[in-house]
Amino acid sequence: MFLGFQSDTGPLARLVVKHVRDAFVSEAKIDAEWRSLGYTARPDLARAIDQYDAFVAAIRQLAPEVEIDFLEADGTTTLDSLYPRDAAIATSKGMVLCNMGKPARAGEPAAEGQLFSQADIPVCGAISGAGHIEGGDVAWIDEHTLAVGRGYRTNEEGIRQLRALLGDAAEIVRVPMPHYRGPGDVFHLMSILSPIDRDLALVYSPLMVVPFREILLERGIGLVEVPDEEFDSMGCNVLAVAPRKCVMIDGNPVTRRRLEEAGCEVVAIDGSEICSKGAGGPTCLTRPILRQCEDVAGTGTARSAGTPQPAA
Ligand SMILES: NC(=O)NCCC[C@H](N)C(=O)O
Fold this sequence. Notes:
By secondary structure, the protein is α/β, with parallel strands linked by helices. It has 8 helices and 15 strands. The protein has a single domain, classed as L-arginine/glycine Amidinotransferase, Chain A (5-stranded Propeller). Strand 7, helix 5 (156-166) and strand 8 form a beta-alpha-beta unit. The longest helix is centred in the N-terminal third of the chain and has 18 residues, at 45-62. The radius of gyration is 18 Å and the shape is globular. The termini are close together. The chain binds citrulline (CIR). Citrulline binds next to loops. The site of citrulline has 17 residues, from loops. Pathway: Amino-acid degradation; L-arginine degradation via ADI pathway; carbamoyl phosphate from L-arginine: step 1/2.
């Protein structure tokens, strides 16, 4: 049986990112877009570049062999393209291109699709028409189970199309999301859930529906709770680079201590320009493409999107 890359916690072998230099592009572009996109303050480009370089270094510190594909600057996307997780979903059948719930982000899936095609990363389909889904609403909780948040960015039609695309490759668990701060806010499933290992997830339970929390517990996933005072500082948005090896935003000391007590190695980055102002944490900054397999025979081979699944 394989964990495969239908995982949000296996050792990262390959990922797609967009350097902030190529997402923010220029001072003029920042000036033109930050308010209308809902950023809390104007990002400082020079500081953002330094922070982004440190973020990539943190990933490489925990996963020295990781292969990183960088999206290029393009004329069809906004500052929000800094957060490539949201534009695609990784599955054993190939990548699924999303259809963004935030209209200003409409150009991002095609831009990622172009990179996938240049880099020979298979794409198995796209969400389209009235269907909306964003990758931040989607998380693997085991190799066959995909949790999908049904909120303001992801609708029923998007989930229906995703189900049809995946067929028996995955069971989709639909997770109703609360209204919380309303449609203008950035509030994804991964705002309240970060998978950390096969048996561990970081959660913010006050905004999680009971049936989903129970599903996590029934599947043997232990929960590390983010305290109230660290929710707005994105304490709950933590990237697992490998099982129990993670990158988080600094300024969340209680969450960090709880993760370390659960056996995690944690690298914290300064996210004041690249995370806080645009409301996207380390998981949002990355689109994992390939995570190394775990298999009971111990061959430990990695498979790319679209590689046929061995029989369980
Ligand atoms: N998965 C995520 O939570 N992504 C963060 C996206 C932030 C971006 N400013 C947005 O509004 O979509």
